[in-house]
């Protein structure tokens, strides 16, 4: 079987599954290139190259995993985020493009040429902390997560991106591992915010594979915010920045929780959904 034939057959197999049909062609090609360590240019140059039995076996295994709705990123083991390459495993939420809006908003509001202390709450894969460290050369970041497995992934990603000297990782439920008197210039978080009642509506690849601890936060998805916002006020310096990703339809509830903060602002994502909440400590 040659490359083109293998790709065609895999695409047909995935397209036969209704929930995977919209991305069947893209997924099949991504997994072919990843499994065989090919560039797209190499594939296009030699589409009739015969696969070895070992190559075909690797590819079919990857397609079988995708057919069970395992996310592409867990199969390949990596995800691109804000120009950096991250290792991802089922221990961490897969970084989304929406979270890049959060990073961009923070970078636009923090100085690049002066020392800055930042806390990243619920760091997961380390995506936010590493992206900020890469673009703020004078920043020192404390990355916290309740999951030791997630912290293992985040530390490996920090090392791979050469920012371990400016990020410390702590196992912590929000700020429990941080001394009460510690204050930051900025606190950034992409916390769990999916309402538990939304569980049946989620795509199978999210519902079945991504860590629930990083997704769900009570019936309305607000449980973490109701704890995070008051704690952030105690751990921010005066006029310090709080930046959070929020879920769809949570604008009003978050605005109410931030009613005693200054300069409260919401930024939309590309679908014009309020996605980032920003505020300054009074």
Annotate the secondary structure layout.
Blueprint: H1 3-15, H2 24-36, H3 40-45, H4 53-67, H5 72-76, E1 78-81, E2 84-87, H6 97-107, E3 116-121, H7 127-135, E4 139-145, H8 148-160, E5 167-171, E6 184-189, H9 204-209, H10 223-235, E7 236-245, H11 251-257, E8 262-268, E9 274-280
Parallel strand pairs: 3-4, 3-6, 4-5, 6-7
Antiparallel strand pairs: 1-2, 7-9, 8-9
Q: How would you summarize this macromolecular structure in one to three sentences?
A:
With 282 residues, this protein is an alpha/beta fold. The chain folds into 2 domains: 3-68; 92-280, Vaccinia Virus protein VP39 (Rossmann fold, 3-Layer(aba) Sandwich).
* Shape annotation: elongated
Strands, count: 9
- Within the largest sheet, what's the order of strands? 5-4-3-6-7-9-8
Largest sheet: 7 strands, mixed
Descriptive report:
The chain is an alpha/beta fold and 282 residues long. The protein has two domains: 3-68; 92-280, Rossmann fold (3-Layer(aba) Sandwich), CATH 3.40.50.150. The protein has eleven helices and nine strands. The chain has helices spanning 3-15, 24-36, 40-45, 53-67, 72-76, 97-107, 127-135, 148-160, 204-209, 223-235, 251-257; strands at residues 78-81, 84-87, 116-121, 139-145, 167-171, 184-189, 236-245, 262-268, 274-280. It is elongated.
């Amino acid at each position: 079987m040659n490359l083109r034939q293998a790709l065609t057959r895999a695409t047909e197999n995935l397209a036969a599954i209704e929930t995977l049909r919209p991305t069947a062609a893209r997924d099949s090609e991504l997994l072919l290139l990843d499994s065989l360590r090919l560039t797209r240019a190499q594939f296009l140059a030699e589409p009739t190259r015969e696969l070895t039995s070992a190559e075909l076996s690797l590819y079919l295994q990857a397609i079988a995993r995708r057919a069970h709705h395992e996310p592409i990123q867990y199969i390949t083991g990596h995800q691109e985020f804000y120009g950096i390459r991250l290792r991802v495993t089922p221990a961490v939420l897969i970084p989304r493009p929406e979270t890049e809006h959060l990073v961009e908003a923070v970078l636009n509001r923090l100085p690049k040429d002066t020392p800055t202390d930042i806390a990243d709450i619920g760091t997961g894969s380390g995506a936010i902390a590493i992206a900020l460290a890469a673009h703020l050369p004078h920043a020192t970041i404390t990355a916290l997560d309740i999951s030791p497995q997630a912290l293992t992934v985040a530390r490996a990603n920090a090392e791979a991106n050469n920012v371990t000297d400016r990020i410390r990782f702590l196992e912590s439920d929000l700020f429990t591992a941080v001394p009460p008197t510690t204050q930051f210039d900025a606190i950034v978080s992409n916390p769990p915010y999916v309402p538990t009642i939304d569980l049946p509506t989620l795509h199978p690849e999210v519902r079945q594979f991504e860590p629930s601890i990083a997704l769900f936060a009570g019936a309305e998805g607000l449980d973490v915010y109701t704890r995070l916002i008051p704690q952030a006020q105690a751990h921010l310096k005066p006029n310090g920045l709080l930046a959070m990703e929020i879920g769809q339809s949570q604008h009003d509830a978050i605005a109410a929780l931030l009613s005693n903060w200054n300069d409260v602002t919401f930024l939309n994502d590309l679908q014009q959904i309020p996605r980032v909440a920003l505020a300054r400590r009074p």
